[in-house]
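User: Can you help me understand a structure? I only have the sequence.
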Amino acid sequence: MPILLHSIVEPFTSEEWNVKEWSIKFMLSERLLTDARKQTGTPNWHEDPWISASWNGIVAKCFRSVQVYHKSFASLPMVGDRLFNVYTGWQILDRSIDGGLMIITFTLDS
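Assistant: Let's start by predicting it. Here is the structure, written out as tokens:
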């Protein structure tokens, strides 16, 4: 039985993904989830460890982009900005802020 790394329908997060006191999380848009579903033929595509690992790598690049942007400009990227590559990187579709839990969640799209 394969080990589940992360269900891609849940927020991507890491204890290391912090900017100041804020925890950064990422969600995938419906379009990205559809692309992931097409990559596997299994009924539980959202729990496929290969899909999880490959998409987690891209999301980690997105966090590094957020981190570098914040270090350079002392602010966070906004809705519409592309992460990790100006032409082909994933775009921030939405940004939500939970001040009580100190979490910023970016929804990403291709």
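Now, to help you interpret it: Residues 18-109 form one domain. Residues 49-73 form the longest helix (25 residues). Let me know which part you'd like to focus on.
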